[in-house]
Amino acid sequence: MTTIAFVGLGHMGRPMAANLVSAGFTVRGFDLVPELCEAARATGVEIADSAANAASGADIVVTMLPAGKHVLAAYEGGDGPGLLAAARPGTLFLDCSTIAVDEARAAAELAVAAGHRPLDAPVSGGVVGAEKGTLAFMVGGETADFEAAMPALEAMGGRIVHCGGAGLGQAAKVCNNMILGISQIAVAEAFVLGERLGLSHQALFDVASNASGQCWALTTNCPVPGPVPASPANNDYEPGFAGALMAKDLGLAEQMIALTGVDAQLGLLAQRLYADFAAGEGAGKDFSGIINSIRAESTA
Ligand code: NAD
Asked: What is the pLDDT of residue 300?
């Protein structure tokens, strides 16, 4: 029986851990928030009294934490032992958090130095994908380790892609979300321009969704109510994918653009626009709600 330590039982981690339980794994979880531990216990997760105790003796250690600093701190430990020291040598370390590529590579180096087998495995698909077990996984690390992690990944995900060596799962995630952030703004600007020109939302949608403007930001996450009934715009921009998370992910893109020197002007501009959006009420709204900022900033 494979035992999986699951550290970070928040919005994403709790349903992911529950799916591992449903697939027959023994799951030992831990979160700093006791209420979240209790909620996970109700889904069949055994609760450890520390992250290190969850990892001790486990075959796989999954982390689903807010940001890179949390992952590195959990790996290395502080007052008590970290996950790397607590786990037995040869343990698979599967970090599913969204963190910077250089942080993922640093985490992988630490794990290898401690005798473990690291994979960076960020996800897309949001809380709904986590609940349904249909997350897309983008994985970086050694092929043999990727294959060893496959049963656990399949219990939590639908589409699973091995992107290359350490950090390249995070690289795929940051590049995809940069496309997404930019294209959502492009679609929103086009709808506001269409409004000013007297074009109905439906007419623009009917043309662009069947023409070269077609993209996910238009056909699934349409930023105006009506043309795509399930899009967050029809529900006062309830997420969906919150503006704060898009701002975080584009902040990672900004870091990677600076690190590589790429002339990614639209990526940097999108980062600034989402940071402004998330500084206000956009933090908790779906990121397609940026259309309201565009309307508000447009001259009368
Ligand atoms: P969350 O804040 O709900 O959950 C993170 C959990 O980690 C919290 O419950 C927190 O208490 C816990 N935690 C922090 N430090 C810890 C430690 N040392 N030990 C144990 N627990 C600790 O965040 P989330 O929405 O579940 O997202 C997790 C990660 O997944 C983030 O990196 C996020 O960017 C990424 N992500 C989120 C979504 C989404 O839609 N929410 C989608 C894709 C990717």
From this structure: 81
Which CATH number does the domain housing residue 103 bear? 3.40.50.720
- Domain span at residue 195 reads 171-297
Q: Compute, in angstroms, the gap from residue 94 CA to the centroid of ligand 1.
A: 14
Whether the full predicted model's pTM is greater than 0.80, yes or no, is yes
- Whether 53 lines ligand 1, by a CB cut-off of 6 Å, is no
How many domains does one find in the chain?
2
Atom of ligand 1 nearest to the CA of 124: 43
CA angle 239, 244, 249 (to 5 degrees): 110
Mutate to test the pocket of ligand 1, among 12, 31, 159, 246 (most ligand atoms within 8 A of CB): 12
Helix/strand/coil for 209: coil
User: How far is the centre of ligand 1, averaged over its atoms, from the C-alpha of 184 (Å)?
Assistant: 24
If asked whether residues 49 and 196 sit together in one domain, one would say no
Q: Which of 116, 137, 165 is the last residue of a domain?
A: 165
42's CB contacts (< 8 A; 6+ apart) are none
Q: Does residue 118 sit in the same domain as residue 153? A: yes
Which pLDDT score, from 0 to 100, does residue 1 have?
Answer: 82
- 123-124 and 135-141 strand pairing: antiparallel
The residues that are catalytic are: 173
Ligand 1 atom closest to the Cα of residue 249 is: 34
Which tens digit of pLDDT belongs to each residue from 16-65? 999 999 999 999 999 999 999 999 999 999 999 999 999 999 999 999 99
Q: Is the ipTM of this complex over 0.90?
A: yes
Answer whether 177's CB lies under 8 Å from 246's CB.
Answer: yes
* Closest of 7, 19, 87 to residue 47, by C-alpha: 7
pLDDT single digits (tens) 263-284 = 999 999 999 999 999 999 899 9
